[in-house]
Write a structure and sequence with these properties.
The protein is an alpha+beta fold and about 725 residues long. Helices cover about 45% and strands about 10% of the residues. A hairpin with a 4-residue loop joins β5 and β6. The chain starts with a helix and ends with a helix.
Length: about 725
């Protein structure tokens, strides 16, 4: 077949246009730009930036602890660190800002704006560094800055970057003639790169540029006048030459499998190399290679492109994952499939533990988001919830939040939509065809696949294809089951935990969402029908056929206008025992403790005065306290000798339960004190500040949250 033109004639192979006239250099040696840094705000701009809502929130009394977490690295998520700097008392924030070196690969102007508004030149270095790395997404933070280094940076953007043209023009419109003294030394200097940018900038600025240049002397002003007089016409702007991409030294292009054309045969060698070169080109620059990649996707078999991208990835791994190779994971994002997701995700989870592996892990998250299938987003969601690396969890959560925002959803609503159906039938089963025999796959209360034969008899496992089975369909069905088992294992614990958290938090689904994402969803229906639900005061369960039944097994229909939530046993009251009997009669096993969940309540007068004294004095292994921090509990700020003397759990705004410990947990050496004595359990407005103790204790707090709190404390102190 005839290959598309972009594969035969890529943009970097085309003959460049003749350079415009009037671009001959004019050199005046010995000039130096003014020193100093100025912040020039537009009317109301500083107030607008200061009002940007930062990430994270802290209460009075928590600032010292948060500062310690910032210093020792426990506050690893950069937007949270930025939010702390924007909000913390200045005596804590300013020293941390001076040493802050965030490593981010995404748009960061939203996080930086309130910091720049607050600290101005003290935030200069970090803002300029990140703007250099991401002109389009972070560059806006340098709009108020005026100095030699920023003028050179923005002039370079004006000359070289299509994606930053609007921003560069906005900067020069703001600073105008005041920027001229900073540009003239470069415009009349010997270095080609800075000169080109400065010359174009001078020709952009409106007003008497020559007069503004006279601060460098008459010779410099006359030289600038000659540059302006020789300016090429507007129709022929000064543009840098397009630099052809090159392959990294570690990559042997001929060692990769060539993609297969849709009408047969392999992609020619030169075209395959062109595709590789196009993949190395970053988007957003003057050299746009997306047409080459799109052309390859048009004429090549998708499976072969996936294999091509994975072979590229393996070559990168074999070369020990050299830096400046983000195009490798971007290629997986462009051509990867669900199989890619299953192989890539375990590595993404482990990379932060390797030296220099964190940035690769973040790029791996981008690849999963770019693949964008249900399986890919499900694995991304799993990392967001369960990664042992806090920073990676935050990055995954940020990408999911971006996806949710683009779709106009909350994070919880997106999570509903990310649950894959795995190609199951409407009744939540999968039929595997071996030819002469068939097997039906269902799921238990933990979403483990269960296999039955056609007569409904449960089997311990799916049998391997036998001699009497049709070879091809039987082998395909056996592979299909293996994939399903892996995928279900990746989803199961996440979805069970998500529903349990929804029960505790009291999340409500709309009637329509409940029907689509719980009752009718082929996978989630296996969990939903094993729970008791509440809607407008009506408690019900989901029967096998998808209808709803009340405590007496009578059919009911919830009010379509009412929300639906998972019934916490506290809310079932006296009907709890009866519901438990119904589930026992039907032999319904639950995915997590609901009906059998311990129900706790405060004794009369308990908590008055701000104390929960029944838990005080208990000796508890330190490991139990550490286990609590997997949920809503947080360890206290390290005090003298790095000892944490409390853990705390915030139940509602301004209501926190604090457990004081003796001798306390040693940071970095948690086994130093293997047993802790609970000195005091108190309710206050902020941990670490006993003076904030609330006299009426937990009055007015949701009884579900009180029950969960007491359950934690009871389990903690159980012998």
């Amino acid at each position: 077949m005839d290959l598309p033109k972009p594969l035969l004639d890529p943009p970097w192979a085309r003959k460049p246009a003749s350079p415009p006239s009037g671009d001959e250099p004019v050199i005046v040696p010995g000039l130096a730009a003014p020193d100093g840094r100025q912040v020039v705000w537009a009317p109301g701009e500083r107030e607008e930036w200061a009002a940007v809502r930062p990430f994270g929130a802290w209460q009075d009394g928590e600032w010292e602890q948060a500062a310690e977490e910032f210093r020792d690295g426990r506050m690893g998520y950069e937007p949270t660190r930025a939010g702390f700097l924007a909000q913390a008392p200045e005596h804590l924030a300013r020293p941390l800002l001076d040493k802050w070196e965030p490593h981010v690969t995404w748009d960061f102007d939203h996080s930086l704006k309130p910091i720049v508004a607050r600290f101005e030149t003290a935030a200069w270095d970090v803002a300029v560094r990140l703007a250099k790395q991401n002109p389009f997404g972070t560059g806006p933070v340098v709009l108020p800055f005026l100095s030699a280094d920023v003028a050179r940076l923005v002039a370079d953007w004006l000359y070289r970057l299509k994606s930053a043209q609007e921003l560069a023009h906005a900067w020069f419109e703001r600073h105008g003639l005041a920027a001229v003294p900073y540009l003239v030394p470069d415009a009349l200097g010997k270095r080609v790169g800075p000169r080109r940018g400065a010359v174009k900038a001078l020709r952009t600025i409106e007003g008497d540029v020559v007069a503004a240049a006279r601060v460098h002397g008459d010779e410099a002003a006359e030289a600038v006048a000659r540059l302006l007089a020789a300016a090429p016409p507007v129709a022929a702007p000064v543009e840098p030459p397009v630099r052809a991409p090159s392959l990294p030294r570690w990559l042997d292009a001929d060692a990769l499998p060539r993609p297969v054309l849709r009408d047969g045969g392999e992609l020619p060698r030169d075209a395959a190399r062109t595709l590789l070169l196009a993949l190395t080109v970053s988007p957003g620059g003057r050299l746009d290679a997306t047409g080459v990649v799109d052309a390859a996707a048009e004429v090549c078999e998708p499976e072969s492109l996936t294999a091509f991208a994975w072979a590229l990835f393996e070559a990168w791994q074999a070369a020990r994952m050299p830096n400046r190779s983000g195009f490798v994971l971007a290629a997986l994002g462009r051509f990867g499939d669900d199989g890619t997701v299953r192989r890539l995700t375990p590595m993404v989870k482990e990379w932060p533990g390797r030296s220099g592996g964190y940035s690769s892990a973040v790029q791996g998250l981008d690849a999963l988001a770019a693949i964008g299938t249900d399986v890919a987003l499900t694995h991304l969601s799993g990392i967001a919830q369960k990664s042992r690396y806090k920073g990676l969890r935050g990055e995954a959560q940020r990408r999911l939040a971006q996806i949710a925002e683009r779709r106009g959803l909350t994070a919880e609503q997106l999570a509903d939509r990310l649950v894959p159906d795995f190609g199951l039938d409407a009744d939540g089963t999968l039929t595997l065809d071996y030819g002469p025999r068939r097997f039906v796959v269902g799921f238990d209360e933990q979403l483990k696949p269960q296999v039955s034969d056609e007569s409904g008899v449960r089997r311990k496992a799916l049998p391997k294809p036998g001699a009497k089975d049709d070879p091809e369909p039987a082998a395909a069905a056996y592979r299909r089951f293996a994939e399903l088992r892996k995928d279900a294992r990746a989803v199961a614990s996440t979805e069970v935990a998500r529903l349990e958290a929804a029960m505790v938090a009291g999340r409500e689904w709309s009637h329509a969402e409940f029907g689509e994402f719980a009752v009718a969803h082929p996978l989630m229906r296996h969990l939903a029908r094993r729970l008791v639900w509440l809607s407008g005061g009506l408690a019900f369960r989901i029967a096998e056929d998808g209808t709803f039944a009340d405590l007496n097994d009578e059919p009911v229909e919830p009010d379509p206008a009412a929300g639906v939530r998972i019934a916490h046993p506290v809310l079932l009251g006296e009907s709890l025992a009866a519901w438990s009997q119904v589930f026992a009669d039907y032999e319904i096993l639950q995915p997590f403790p609901q009906l059998g969940r311990p129900v706790h309540a405060l004794a009369d007068g308990e908590g008055d005065g701000g104390r929960l004294e029944r838990f005080e004095g208990a000796a508890v292994p330190t490991g139990r306290f550490l286990g609590l921090t997997r949920t809503a509990w947080k360890r206290g700020a390290p005090q003298d000798n790095g000892i944490e003397h409390w853990i705390s759990c915030t139940l509602a705004p301004g209501v926190t339960v604090v457990v004081d410990l003796d001798p306390g947990i040693a940071v970095g050496l948690v086994d130093l004190n293997p047993v802790q004595t609970i000195e005091r359990v108190w309710i206050g407005r902020a941990p670490g500040d006993p003076s904030s103790m609330i006299a009426n204790g937990l009055a007015g707090v949701d009884p579900v949250l009180v029950s969960e709190l007491l359950a934690d404390l009871t389990a903690l102190t159980a012998s």
